[in-house]
Design brief:
The complex is a heterodimer of chains A (337) and B (701). With 337 residues, chain A is α+β, with helices and mostly antiparallel strands. Chain A contains 12 helices and 12 strands. Chain A has helices at 12-20, 34-39, 75-80, 82-87, 89-96, 101-106, 109-114, 165-171, 189-192, 273-279, 286-297, 309-326; strands at 5-8, 25-28, 47-50, 59-61, 67-70, 175-180, 183-188, 211-217, 226-232, 240-251, 254-263, 270-271. In chain A, a hairpin with a 6-residue loop joins β11 (254-263) and β12 (270-271). The two termini of chain A are 38 Å apart. By secondary structure, chain B is an alpha+beta fold. Chain B has 3 domains: 17-25 and 437-546, Aldehyde oxidase/xanthine dehydrogenase, molybdopterin binding domain (Aldehyde Oxidoreductase, domain 4); 31-126 and 181-263, Aldehyde Oxidoreductase, domain 3 (Alpha-Beta Complex), CATH 3.90.1170; 143-176 and 274-434 and 551-695, Aldehyde Oxidoreductase, domain 4 (2-Layer Sandwich), CATH 3.30.365. Chain B has a 7-stranded mixed beta sheet with strand order 3-5-1-14-11-12-13, with helices on both faces. In chain B, a hairpin with a 4-residue loop joins β26 and β27. Chain B starts with 16 loop residues before the first helix and ends with a helix. The chains are: A alpha+beta (337), B alpha+beta (701). The A-B interface holds A 1-2, 40-41, 118, 120-121, 123-127, 139, 142-144, 146, 231-239, 241-242, 286, 305-306, 308, 311-312, 315-316, 318-319, 337 and B 43, 45, 62-64, 107, 109-110, 112-113, 116, 265, 420, 566, 568-571, 573, 608-609, 613, 615, 617-618, 622-625, 627-628, 630, 632-636, 690-692, 695-696, 700-701. The structure holds flavin-adenine dinucleotide and iron/sulfur cluster (SF4). Residues 117, 119, 121-122, 129-131, 138-140, 148, 157-159, 200 of chain A line the site of iron/sulfur cluster. Chain A: It comes from Plantactinospora alkalitolerans.
Chain lengths: 337, 701
C-alpha cells in the first residue's frame, strides 16, 4: 500500500514548514482534484497537509474598498457572499458555472486556483505527458486536443487551466497573497500561473512549498456591471469549451474602461489586455467589440481540433459586452447547475 | 411492503427502494466473507503485442500483496465461445486495456499499489483501430446479433431506386458509446469444498454460472451465482464479463474469497461498448413520399478475439413498407476490445440513420414528417410477410403530435429566431421487438398463509422485482403483503437474462403460470386451504412459447423533441422531449415511465454528448471517466414526458405485455438531430452534435 502522512495545518507558518520540509508534500484543500489525481497515480504525495482548518476562511472588506478572500473559503460560500453578488457578479457567476453543487461545497479558493489541467493524457499515467514527466513528450499536441489551448502554448504542452473562478478573478485584477518558506509575498494573478514554455511541469511562479493564503480583489465600482459567460458541451457539470469574463464602464457612448478574461484558451486564465486596449476610448459598438476580440485573438494558433475556440471566444466577447452595455444581462446571479 | 394489494397496472414504488436509499441493499462487492482478499486489474498499455515478460518481483515485495496472476501462473481455463473470457491464458495482447495481470492482496490499497508496480515488457506490432467503410479486413459475418440474417433482399432495390422520383443517399456516423452503469463490473468469488459461490453484478446469473462451470470444468450444480441487486448494466452485464472469471481464478489461486471491482476508467473497453457505426441509407420514393426502395448498409467493428455483429439495419426490415429493399452488414476486425450489447443494440444506431433519412426525405418531398411516416405504415411485416400482433406506430405519432402541439409547426428550417436562439422541433418513429423467452418459476404456499415466488430474474434497477410481485399477487389473488418474491440467484428456477426488453414479458408469463397453477391446485385439491406441509409448484413456459402463433411482435413509439441553438456559442439545449409508446399492457406505470424517460434521455445523450474519443496512435479511447465522457445531466432536458397508448394485444403473449426497457432509446437521437435541423437548417449526420460543429456552420452574429 502506498501510504502517506496526513497532518492538519494549525497556522499558515507551521503548514509551510511542514510542506517545505518534505519533497513530496502537498496541501490538501477540499481534495476534489488532488484526491482524484492520487487515485489515478498522477499525484503521489508522501505528506498531505490539510489547510481547511487554517484561519483563512473569511471574506473581509478592505479599507479602500475591495475584498480579501481567504484561501480556504469554499466556492459555494464565496458565490453566495452578498458583497460578491452585488459588487462582483462576474465572480459569483463564474463560481456557479463551475462543477456541481456538491463539488463547490468542498472546493476551496486556493485549491481552485491550483487545480490541474483536465488534459486527458495528463490524467492517465499510461500515456506520455511532459507535465507529469518532463521530457516524456506531449501526447496532446497531435492527439485529442479539442479542449486545449489556442493561446500561449508551446510544443512541450498545450494544456489549459480549467478554472472558471480564476477567469473572473483575472479580469478583476486579483492579487494572490502567498506565504513561501522565505516569507510572505504578493503576486498579481496575471503573473501567478506560468505559460508552459519549456517547463510545463512548473505551473505557478510560487516558490516550492508556497501556500496561498488569500486572494485580494481591489475596488472596481463598475464591476457591478459585469458578467461571466461559459459555453460548454452539456448544460451542467462540464468544464468550459470557452468562457469570457467581462466588465465595462461607459462614458456616454464611449468605453471608459473594460476588463476581459478568457477561459479554456491557455495554460493560465487569460487576461485579454490587447482587446481591452483596443476598446478604451472607442465607441461601445458591436463592431468595435468584434475588432477588439480579433485583436486579442490574432495571436491564437489553433491545434488540429480546437479552431472553433477562436470564433467562439470572439462571439462570446461580443455578446457579453453587448449585453452589458444594453443592460440586458439578467440582474440576479444565475443559479448554479 | 407498502400497499396490501398490488394489481397489475397500478403505480407501485420499488419493493427494495428503502434498502437502496438507506444503503443496506447489498451489491456484488458488499457481501462480507471471512478472510477476504482484494484484486486489482493490470491493463495492457499497448494495442497489439506479444508479452515478453512480466516482472512481478517488485509488486510481490509490496507489503500485503499475496499474488500476481499472469498468463504464466493463472489457473487454466477450458474453452468457451467468448474468447474475451479466456483471461490470462496467453502471452498476447489483442487490444489496449486488455487485462494482462491481476494483483491479489490483503487490502484494496495494497492491490492497487501492487498493480502500479507490475512491469510488463511487450514485443509490439502495428495495430489498426479505426473503422472505415473501406477497411481491408471488412467481411460478411454469418449472422448478426443475436441470430438475424446478415443481409436481406426483397424485390429489386437497384431497379426500384433508379426508377424513383425522389432519391436520397446519405451516410451517417456514430462513434463508440460506452455503457456506464452506476455500479461498475464487480464480483466476489469464494471456493469451498469444490464449490464456487460468486456474487456478481450481472444481468443474468444463470449464464454466469454455466459459463464459470465450463471455464473451470466443474458441474454447473457446483456453482452458485447471485445478483440480488445490480446497479445497472445497459447490456454490458448481459452475458458473463471478465470480473467473475478473474475473481474466481484469483480465489482459487490464493484459496481465499476474493473481491474484484473495476474502476470507472477500467470499464471503458474490457467490458464491451457500442461499436462505432457507419451507415449508408438510400431511400427512393414517389413525389408523395411513398417509399419504393429502401437500402441500409451498415459497417461496424469487431475484435480479433470474438465476433460481435451489431444488427444495425435490422430495424429497417420492419419499420416501413416498400416493395424493393435490401439490408447488409459488414464487419471490420480491428485490434480493439470486443463490442457488445448496449441498450437496443442494432435498433439504437440503426434508428438514428433511418429516422434521420426519413426526415430528409420529408424535407425533399415537402411533406410533413409525421404524414410521411403514416403514408409508409404497413400492416404486414414488410420482409417476413407476417401480420403484426399489433402495430400502433400511427397511433403513437398522432397522439404525440396532439400532446406536443405539432399541428401548428412551420416546416421551414432555420427561421424561428428569438433573441440569440434558434428554435426547432423534430420527430422520429421507433420500433423494438417484443419477445417473450421461455422461463420457469416456483410458487409455494406456506402454512402461515404467505406465498413464496422464486424465479431467476434480475432487477438491474428497472423495477423488475416489483413488477413480478404485482403479477404474482394478481395471479394468486391474495393481498400483496402475503407474497414474497425471490430473484437474482442461479439456484432459483432458470429464466432468461435481463436483456432484449424481454424481462417483464417472459418472466411475468412464467410467474403468472406458476401462481395460477398453485392457486388451481389449492382450490382443486385442498378446497382452497393450504396443506400442513405447504404446497409448491414449479412450471415453465416452454410449451406455450413453442406454440405461439407466427406473427410479427413489436412495440412501437414516436419521439418528439424541441431544441434551441445558441447562435453565438453553438450550444444546443433541449427544451422538451416527449415520447408516446405502444407497449401492450403496462404492469407498473411508475417504473415503466422511468424506463422510457431513461431511454429517451440516453438517446438525447447520444445525439448531443456521448462520444468515445479514439486516439488511433494508442488504439483506445482517451476519455475514460464521467467528467470527460459526457452523459446527459438533469439540466440537459428541461421537460421530459412519456406516455403510452392503450394497447390490448393478446397475440403478443397471454399477458399482453411488451417490454419497454429499450424502445425509449430507439429513435430519440434522430428526433433531437431532426429538431436541430429544423432549428438551424443544418443537417448533422455525424454524432454527437456539439457546439464546435455548429459554430462552423452558423451564420455569424
Ligand atoms: C467532475 C468535476 C467537474 C468539475 N467542473 C469544474 C468546472 O466546470 N469549472 C471549474 O472551475 N472547476 C471544475 N472542477 C474543478 C474544481 O473546481 C476543483 O477540483 C476545485 O476547485 C479544487 O479545489 P479543492 O479545494 O478541492 O482543491 P484540492 O483538490 O484540495 O487541491 C488542488 C490543488 O491545489 C493545491 N492546494 C490546495 N489549497 C492550496 C493552498 N491554499 N495553497 C497552495 N496550494 C493549495 C493542492 O495541493 C492541489 O495540488 C470540477 C471538478 C470535478 C471533479
Ligand atoms: S498538453 Fe500538457 S498536460 Fe497534456 S499531454 Fe501535453 S504535456 Fe501533458
Amino acid at each position: 500500500m502506498r501510504t502517506f502522512r496526513y497532518e492538519r495545518g494549525t497556522d499558515p507558518g507551521q503548514a509551510v514548514t511542514l510542506v517545505a520540509g518534505e519533497p513530496d508534500a502537498a496541501y490538501l484543500g477540499g481534495g476534489t482534484n488532488l484526491v482524484d489525481l492520487m487515485k489515478l497515480g498522477v499525484a503521489r504525495p508522501r505528506l498531505l497537509v490539510d489547510v481547511t482548518r487554517l484561519p483563512l476562511d473569511s471574506v473581509e472588506p478592505l479599507p479602500g474598498g475591495g475584498l480579501r478572500i481567504g484561501a480556504t473559503v469554499r466556492n459555494s460560500d464565496l458565490a453566495a457572499h452578498p458583497t460578491v453578488r452585488r459588487d462582483y457578479p462576474v465572480l459569483a457567476r463564474a463560481l456557479l458555472a463551475g462543477a456541481s453543487g456538491q463539488l463547490r461545497n468542498m472546493a476551496t479558493v486556493g485549491g481552485n486556483l491550483l487545480q490541474r489541467t483536465r488534459c486527458y493524457y495528463f490524467q492517465d499515467v499510461s500515456r506520455p505527458c511532459n507535465k507529469r514527466e518532463p521530457g516524456a513528450g506531449c501526447s496532446a499536441l497531435d492527439g485529442q486536443n479539442r479542449d486545449l489551448a489556442i493561446l500561449g502554448w508551446s510544443p512541450q504542452c498545450v494544456a489549459t487551466h480549467p478554472s472558471d473562478m480564476a477567469v473572473a478573478l483575472v479580469a478583476l485584477d486579483a492579487v494572490v497573497e502567498v506565504l513561501e518558506p522565505a516569507g510572505a509575498r504578493e503576486i498579481p494573478l496575471t503573473e501567478f500561473h506560468r505559460l508552459p514554455g519549456e517547463r510545463p511541469d512548473q505551473e505557478t511562479t510560487m516558490e516550492p512549498g508556497g501556500l496561498v493564503t488569500a486572494v485580494r480583489i481591489p475596488a472596481l465600482p463598475y464591476a457591478r456591471r459585469s458578467t461571466y459567460r461559459k459555453a460548454r458541451d452539456r448544460a451542467s457539470f462540464a468544464f468550459a469549451a470557452g468562457s469570457v469574463a467581462a466588465a465595462i464602464d461607459l462614458d456616454g457612448p464611449l468605453v471608459r474602461e473594460v476588463r476581459l478574461g478568457y477561459g479554456a484558451v491557455a495554460h493560465r486564465p487569460w487576461r485579454a489586455r490587447l482587446a481591452e486596449e483596443a476598446l478604451r476610448g472607442q465607441p461601445a459598438t458591436e463592431e468595435n467589440f468584434r475588432l477588439a476580440a480579433d485583436e486579442e485573438l490574432a495571436a491564437a494558433r489553433a491545434l488540429a481540433h480546437n479552431a472553433f475556440k477562436i470564433p467562439l471566444i470572439r462571439n462570446l466577447t461580443v455578446r457579453t459586452l453587448v449585453e452589458l452595455t444594453e443592460g440586458s444581462v439578467e440582474p440576479a446571479a444565475e443559479r448554479g447547475r | 411492503m407498502s400497499a396490501p394489494t398490488a394489481a397489475v397496472g397500478r403505480a407501485q414504488p420499488r419493493l427494495e427502494g428503502r434498502e437502496k436509499v438507506t444503503g443496506t441493499a447489498r451489491y456484488a462487492v458488499e457481501h462480507p466473507a471471512d478472510g477476504l482478499a482484494y484484486a486489482w486489474a493490470v491493463q495492457a498499455s499497448v494495442a497489439k503485442a506479444r508479452i515478453v515478460r512480466v516482472d512481478d518481483a517488485v509488486a510481490l515485495a509490496e507489503p500485503g500483496v499475496l499474488a500476481v496472476l499472469t498468463y504464466a501462473n493463472a489457473p487454466r481455463l477450458a474453452p468457451v465461445e467468448s474468447r474475451e473470457l479466456l483471461l490470462l491464458q496467453q502471452p498476447r495482447v489483442h487490444y489496449r486495456g486488455e487485462i494482462v495481470a491481476l494483483v491479489v492482496a490483503e487490502s484494496l490499497e495494497a492491490a492497487r499499489e501492487g498493480a502500479l508496480l507490475v512491469r510488463v515488457d511487450y514485443d509490439t506490432e502495428p495495430h489498426s483501430s479505426v473503422l472505415t467503410e473501406r477497411h481491408p479486413s471488412l467481411y460478411k459475418p454469418d449472422k448478426v446479433n443475436p441470430n438475424f440474417p446478415t443481409d436481406t433482399c426483397v424485390g429489386d432495390f437497384d431497379a426500384g431506386y433508379e426508377a424513383a422520383e425522389v432519391r436520397l443517399d446519405q451516410t451517417y456516423r456514430t462513434p463508440a458509446y460506452h455503457n456506464n452503469p452506476m455500479e461498475p463490473h464487480a464480483s466476489t468469488a469464494h471456493w469451498w469444498q469444490g464449490r464456487l459461490l460468486v456474487h456478481d453484478s450481472s444481468q443474468g446469473s444463470g449464464d454466469v454460472r454455466d459459463t464459470l462451470g465450463r471455464l473451470f470444468e466443474v458441474p454447473a450444480e457446483s456453482v452458485r451465482v447471485t445478483a440480488e441487486h445490480v446497479g445497472g448494466g445497459f447490456g454490458s452485464k448481459g452475458s458473463p464479463r471478465c470480473t467473475p472469471v478473474l475473481a474466481a481464478m484469483a480465489a482459487r489461486h490464493v484459496d481465499r474469497p476474493v473481491r474484484l471491482a473495476l474502476t470507472r476508467q477500467q470499464i471503458f473497453g474490457p467490458i464491451g461498448y457500442r461499436t462505432p457505426v457507419i451507415q449508408r441509407v438510400r431511400l427512393g420514393a414517389d413525389a408523395d413520399g411513398r417509399l419504393a426502395a429502401i437500402c441500409h448498409d451498415a459497417f461496424s467493428q469487431t475484435s480479433t478475439t470474438t465476433e460481435f455483429a451489431e444488427q444495425t439495419a435490422v430495424l429497417t426490415r420492419a419499420l416501413y413498407a416498400a416493395p424493393h429493399r435490401r439490408t447488409t452488414h459488414r464487419l471490420a476486425r480491428l485490434d480493439v476490445p470486443t463490442p457488445s450489447w448496449m441498450r437496443a443494440p442494432g435498433e439504437c444506431p440503426g434508428s438514428f440513420a433511418l429516422e434521420s433519412a426519413m426526415d430528409e426525405l420529408a424535407v425533399a418531398c415537402g411533406i410533413d414528417p409525421i404524414e410521411l411516416r403514416i403514408r409508409n405504415d404497413t400492416d404486414r411485416h414488410p420482409e417476413d410477410d407476417l401480420p403484426f400482433s399489433s402495430r400502433n406506430l400511427v397511433a403513437c405519432l398522432r397522439d404525440g403530435a396532439r400532446r406536443f402541439g405539432w399541428a401548428d409547426r412551420d416546416p421551414a428550417p432555420g427561421v424561428r429566431r428569438q433573441g440569440r436562439w434558434l428554435f426547432g422541433t423534430g420527430v422520429a418513429g421507433a420500433a423494438y421487438p417484443a419477445r417473450s423467452p421461455v422461463g420457469s418459476a416456483r410458487a409455494e404456499a406456506r402454512p402461515d398463509g404467505t406465498y413464496q415466488v422464486g424465479i431467476n430474474a434480475t432487477d438491474i434497477g428497472t423495477g423488475a422485482r416489483t413488477a413480478l410481485w404485482q403479477v404474482a399477487t394478481e395471479a394468486l389473488g391474495v393481498p400483496g403483503d402475503r407474497v414474497r418474491i425471490s430473484i437474482g440467484d442461479s439456484d432459483l428456477p432458470p429464466a432468461y437474462v435481463a436483456g432484449g426488453s424481454t424481462g417483464t414479458a417472459g418472466w411475468s408469463w412464467a410467474v403468472d403460470k406458476a401462481c395460477r397453477s398453485l392457486r388451481r391446485q389449492l382450490q382443486e385439491q385442498y378446497a382452497g386451504s393450504v396443506p400442513p406441509g405447504g404446497l409448491s409448484v414449479f412450471t415453465d413456459t416452454a410449451a406455450e412459447v413453442a406454440a405461439l402463433e407466427k406473427v410479427a411482435r413489436y412495440a412501437f413509439g414516436a419521439h418528439f423533441a424541441q431544441v434551441r441553438v445558441d447562435v453565438d456559442s453553438g450550444e444546443v439545449r433541449v427544451g422538451r422531449m416527449l415520447g408516446v409508446f405502444a407497449t401492450g399492457r403496462v404492469v407498473n406505470p411508475s417504473t415503466a415511465r422511468s424506463q422510457l424517460i431513461g431511454g429517451m434521455t440516453m438517446g438525447l445523450s447520444m445525439a448531443l454528448h456521448e462520444e468515445g474519443l479514439l486516439d488511433h496512435r494508442f488504439g483506445d479511447w482517451v476519455n475514460r471517466d464521467l467528467a470527460t465522457y459526457h452523459v446527459s445531466a438533469c439540466a440537459d432536458v428541461e421537460r421530459i414526458e412519456a406516455y403510452w397508448v392503450a394497447e390490448d394485444d393478446d397475440r403478443v403473449n397471454p399477458l399482453g405485455i411488451k417490454g419497454l426497457g429499450e424502445i425509449g432509446i430507439v429513435g430519440s437521437a434522430a428526433a433531437v438531430a431532426n429538431a436541430v435541423h429544423h432549428a438551424t437548417g443544418i443537417r448533422f449526420r455525424t454524432l454527437p452534435i456539439q457546439l464546435d460543429k455548429l459554430l462552423q456552420h452558423l451564420p455569424a452574429g
